Amino acid sequence: MTEHKIDAVSGASETERIEEAQVDHWPGPKGMIPVTSGQADDANVHNRYYLDSLLVEMRVIDSVEPDLTTTILGKNYASPLMPAALSHLNKVLPDKSRKPMQEKARAACNLSLLNWIGMESNEEYGEIVAEGGDTVRIIKPFADHQKILDEIKYAEKHHAVAVGIDIDHVAGKDGKYDVVDGIPLGSITMADLKKYAESTDLPFIAKGVLSVSDALKARQAGCKAIVVSHHHGRVPFGIPPLSVLQSIKKSLTGSGMQIFVDGSLMSGYDAYKALALGADAVLIGRGILSELLKDGEKAVEAKLQKMNEQLAELMMYTGVKDTKSFDPSVLHKEN
Ligand SMILES: Cc1cc2nc3c(=O)[nH]c(=O)nc-3n(C[C@H](O)[C@H](O)[C@H](O)COP(=O)(O)O)c2cc1C
What we know:
This protein is of the alpha/beta class. The chain is built from 11 helices and 14 strands.
């Protein structure tokens, strides 16, 4: 990829960013979390370029300090930033007494944010939610459908705010259904999605929608929300989630569905752009990962607070008084 591009927030070149990513590398099993390779098939690279190509105009006359509070899946939260569905983190640190998944849950609870939880056993999920705070439970597309239904029921009993499936985790690198922790994943048909959505009174979420086509299928299946995402670049050459957000939003007009987005949102400025383009709330995964693994709960809180401040700063500069008032026309795409 071109090396002259500069990160809008850190000022780092692409080469420096890749080097930084290697230094700050994932301590877990090799290959589990793709570190940005800088190559064109790595969708994360395109996320970054897309985000950095969006510039903002100012609308400061009459601007006020913004109110960040928002309603997500029918409940009120302090801001539209949500710690993303991460997983496996309790197993990756040398210090086994640390429980990053619990630390992340506590940070979210302390800040009144909605926390998302990914692939964990029911037992581990139960231990994480015991820390308090609201959670969304994302279940893998297991080949064993009964396992999915069991995890939905378990999440209901543990007061999840919503449940869903990361539908973008179907394919493995060998072009066959993926296997995670030895557990086979399988296909997700429209009928499956409908069956899962109908099996629960909780809002059901399709995570990993990256086209109008899948968004319409999720709507038809009875999903109450979607996450526009490619799951940190599972799909080679994946388009940036933000680039398809507006057409997806348009296609879901009148559905009442909420639209969340993730993908390389590393600062409150990135989050602002996603919200301006129409997301109801945003998920922050790798934006808090280093803080979480290095220093835990308080470091995650500090990072999210900083992101809230950056979000509020840009809202103020662009005359957005609250989370209902975002306007995509403040964004200018630089080619
Ligand atoms: C360590 C790690 C574990 C993850 N585990 C899950 C998971 O179990 N289920 C899921 O839906 N997404 C999982 N994700 C994907 C994130 O929820 C998110 O979609 C992705 O990282 C993109 O957001 P980001 O660019 O802010 O990291 C995981 C991400 C990371 C970094």
